[in-house]
Amino acid sequence: MYPTVAEVLALPVVRHGGPRVVAGAAGLDGRVRWVHVAEVADIAHLLKGGELVLTTGIALPDDDTALARYVGELAEVGVTGLVVELVRHWNDRLPAALVEAADKHGLPLVTLSRETRYVTITEAVNGLIVDAQVAELKAAEQVHETFTELTVSGAEPHVVLREVARLTGQPVVLETLSHEVLAYDATGADATELLADWQPRSRAVRLGERTGYDAKAGWLVTIVGARGHDWGRLVVACAEPPPHRYVVVAERAASALAVHHLLAREGDTLERQAHRGVLAELLTSPATPAELAARASALRVPLTGRRLVGAAIRPRLTGTTGPPSSASSQPLLRELAEATALATRRARVSALVGSVDDTSVRALLSLSPQANTGAVLQRLAREIQQARPTVPVVIAVGTAVDSAADAGRSLTEAAHVAAAALQRDDEPRCGYHRLEDVRLRGLLHLLGDDDRLAAFAARELGPLLARDAASGSRLVQALRHFCEHGGNKSAAAAAAHTSRTAYYQQLARVEQVLGVQLEDPESMLSLHMALLVHDVLARSSDPDHPAE
């Protein structure tokens, strides 16, 4: 808000006097709060600090000790500069004692070689200061209006942080009290550099007040929380001590974030949102950018030099039906995500945990290369089953990978395995499913996006599906029981709760419609494969309804 000494010296009214800095040049960036004309030596006790003192020197002593004391007293009260006119008392240069004392205290000492109307300097500088104060008031009003609107609307954290970055021009980070980065806005800076080694850097910044500035770190920090419950810190990275306006912006932003936290209790926590954002990018990015790895590391989940395992946790509502609708699944998945996150903490596993779709919770486990992966997964599966919500869950894992670029593949594989495992009633002894456990169903889920699978299923089952749709018959279900019982008609009839005679008639109609012999092993295998493909495609296209 205030001009620097250097900016004052650049004003035309000052340049007219021929200013020359003779000492204390290092202090030229000091801020001038006011300009004061003083022709007495004992003026220091009347000043508040931040003044630029103008004098002709006519009342200053010639004694070296007195001159040194005069400068020392000015520096002690925080004067930002001393301007002396070389006209009335001293003509060509200032006493050496005055210059040496100014250098000693880092106080800018400036001479004017020509007679200067000090009133024009005070008017010009004080006018600048008043204009700056008015601008500051307007800016404060804008800050007030902006954050009042954000608070009332319960704005999302990324929106609040974007406004902080816009109003300050500085990078801003929202972290938990355990120093995990929840959100940030680098405002054009290098995000990787901003987040590098975040935890140790953040732990080193300890403030004894709710808002404060750490000069060593270059951080303006304010606590985020409400009703006696503090849960985070807002960090504005500014290399220089921040003006008061930055403090106001940070504190108002913290209030808006606290209100959003109170209003959003029915939704994902900020931690889950941060984890979900990284998981979503890992699933969609063909390569892992450095910024994404830095974001994960700032969440205390390193991706480099680690063994990464994708996991999917799906609620098992029934043994045969699909998952609930999107609207009804969200509360359950939020509960399951928090339970999974709790389980990872209990199992002492670093992991990103979040729900990235409407069917399951995903987790990316970051393990030491020396870790016993199987033992860790068993321990985690046990903790998830103990911490899970009221419904049973299916836990599936993908193949372990050693590169963050392959993490998305492991996460995708885990989701396919979980979807296939829902069709099984048995649970593996280890507590989690792998691709080799779901066998053919798992393979078909992995290949579910291949159009040739859909074409194969349509060729094999198309006439039968059309017959069921037209007449209301249940020939597809009859064929399903036949294939699932390995061609044992008696067992299939019992499973269909149909008499043998009626069931045999249904099988005869199946053979007639499809033009095949069900006793032929290759025909039964092909039709069973087509049924499995049909199930996979039906669930992927309409997860709210089970396959026929």
UniProtKB/TrEMBL annotation:
Taking every annotated instance into account, which residue ranges of this chain make up the domain PucR C-terminal helix-turn-helix?
A: 475-532
- Looking at the record, the residues that make up the CdaR GGDEF-like domain are 288-419
- Offer one Pfam family short name for this entry: PucR
Q: Which residue range or ranges hold the Purine catabolism PurC-like domain?
A: 7-129
Q: Origin, by domain of life?
A: Bacteria
The UniProt entry's sequence similarity note says: Belongs to the CdaR family.
This protein is called: CdaR family transcriptional regulator
- Which organism does this sequence originate in? Prauserella flavalba
Its lineage reads: Bacteria, Bacillati, Actinomycetota, Actinomycetes, Pseudonocardiales
